[in-house]
Every structure is written in C-alpha cells, then in structure tokens.
Amino acid sequence: MAASARVVVVGSLNVDSTSYVASFPAPGETIRSHGFRVALGGKGSNQAVAAHVVGAAVELVARVGGDAAGDFAVATLDRLGVPTGAIARETDAPTGVAQITVADSGENTIIVTGGANLALTPAVVDAERDRIVAALVLTQGELPVATIDRLASLAAEAGVRFVLNLAPPAPVSAETLAVADPLVVNEHEARAVGIGTDAPDATLEDWRTTAASAVGRVARSVVVTLGAAGAVAASVDGTWAIAAPSVSAVDTTGAGDAFTGTLAAFLAEGRSLEESLRIAVAAGALAVQARGTVDSYAPRAAVLEAAARGGASPAGGAAPA
What we know:
Elements: E1 6-10, E2 14-21, E3 35-41, H1 43-53, E4 57-65, H2 68-80, E5 87-90, E6 96-103, E7 108-113, H3 122-127, H4 129-132, E8 136-140, H5 145-158, E9 162-165, H6 174-179, E10 180-186, H7 187-192, H8 204-214, E11 222-225, E12 230-235, E13 238-243, H9 255-268, H10 273-287, H11 300-308
Parallel strand pairs: 1-4, 1-8, 2-6, 4-5, 8-9, 9-10, 10-11
Antiparallel strand pairs: 2-3, 6-7, 11-12, 12-13
C-alpha cells in the first residue's frame, strides 16, 4: 500500500457481547443460546481494524471507560497492531457496549449503549486537530451529532477527505452531509437522509441511478450498500454497481464495517471510487464467512485476490457487506 495511505478514524469503541441462537425470540419469550463470545466492537474500532489489516496507516481517536472492558478493548487493539495512543480513559463512564444476537440464518440484532463514547465531544476534535488534518478522516453515526458536525467542518477547512458512514442514522447538518466524500449508507440509512425514499423495492441498477441523483445535492459522493445485492456508488466522475456473490452467511455482524474501513483505506491510497468499491465488496464478502467482527477481517492479499475473483472465496464465495 502507498505510504500516503493514512486514515484517522474518530469513532466509537465498544465491547461486543454476542449470543448465538437458532432464531430470534418473540417479544416476551426466553430462549437458550448455543454460543456466546465477548469481542472488540464499535463501528469506529471495527473500521479502524478493517483499514489497518488491508495496509493503511491508521490512527483511532476514541474513548473507553476505566474498567475491565476498557482494558480488554485496548489490549485487543494492541494485539491487532492498531495504534492506541489517541484512545483516552473516562473514569466516570463505562466502556461502550453492544449487545448482539446472531441467529443461525446469519442475521443479527444489535443494541448499543454509548458509555464513554459520548465523551468524544467537539472539544476532542479540536484538541486532535493536527492528527486529524494529516489523513483521510473517517467517522460514523455512533458519535454525538455535534462531534460529527465539527469533524466535518474541520476536514473541510483543512481540505482533507471526509468519509461519513452515517450508521446508525443521526440528524447531522446539511453542511456535514455536503462535504461527505463519500457518504456511506445502507438502503435504510439512505432513506433517512432523503435518498431513495420513493423507491421501496429498488434494484441494484435503480439504486445506482438514485445515488447519482444525490451527488452534489446531498453529498459530494455517495455509496449505498444493499446486502445480498451488492453496493453502488456515484460521484461526479460516474456511477457504478457492484454485484456481490450470493452464498449462505455465517455471521453478518461487522461486515458493513469491513466494507467501510476497506473502502476508506483504498481511497486513502489514491484508488478510484469504482476500484475501492469493488475491493470493499470483496472485503465484506469475506468477513461474513467467520463468526465475530474484527477477527473475521481478511488481510490485504486475500481481499485483493477475492476482488479479482468477484468477491467469492476459494471455497465458493460469501455473502456481501
């Protein structure tokens, strides 16, 4: 990867508690799980790891609590080789947590509690200015809205690329959306910001047209992930639709973060949006073949090889991001 491929992630850092079940419980129903694991999570840390394992130089600006979960999160990032110098402790708040249930179908439900992530305020963004303006900036919708808005403003002032994964949807300002390059959303998040609201049953090609209509109107460029269908992207340079291989997924948790972190890494390397999109779809496809989040992310060589094959694994493929 090019030496200039630098990504700074300002984002959430959680510890995931995941239960594996045959199927989701009905309201009021108690069921047994057939597996449980505790792992690093949070969209910010997930995407930082994804960008790191495909070769980008990554810095993660995040906050954890002064608790055992915070110790676990920092130790996991150290093990994975992601720098932790910009992660601070909040002694009066718990580390963020995500409670996840994964059904045998591969689908999941997630409840996120922000905890120490809420201490990532606009003041933190200003304090980290020198770090932030030296790289492509990536953030997500799990942070306070004011923080996302300030980060977008700072990136625009400094003339650095700002990638916004608005997941979950957050009421950021129109000015924040306008500088996103790209705005990365799934179809539900797209509709939350007014993209595709009139196309409830849109195809991949329909979404390509819809994404194009949002370029310059909503964001500088737009990427929409579409589950098993694949993903689309649009910018002033054109529009692209990348179909994803369709096979049974083991666990979709974190696959969207694998997609987004990989996309940011290759954009930072100087690859085009089209090429970065194709590689990111492959990364998401590989991620769903193993349980968990960051430990399922494939390294650069495997991702590039899968992208050359159209995203399928040697054993027969994987579901998309």
